[in-house]
Input
Amino acid sequence: MASMNISLPDPMRDYVQDRIESGQYASVSDYVRDLIRRDQGAMEDEERWLRDLDVSITKSLAEMHAGEGMDLDTACDTVLVELENGGRADA
Output
């Protein structure tokens, strides 16, 4: 396993040390590894969200070019009616 050295301002160092002393982490390395895992997960979630958004946009554009879907004004009017009727479009 490789090692890295980092420098922290005293308040940050104290914060990390408090987390270790409270039993939340076994060591500074454990704390840093957890931060990196969380960051990796957040990046993967963002990339997945962007891929899903791209698919949704592509699908929506294809529907609109095929004459399907509804224009923005109609969609907004429908949502407003549903909101006014407590979430029911047919009231």
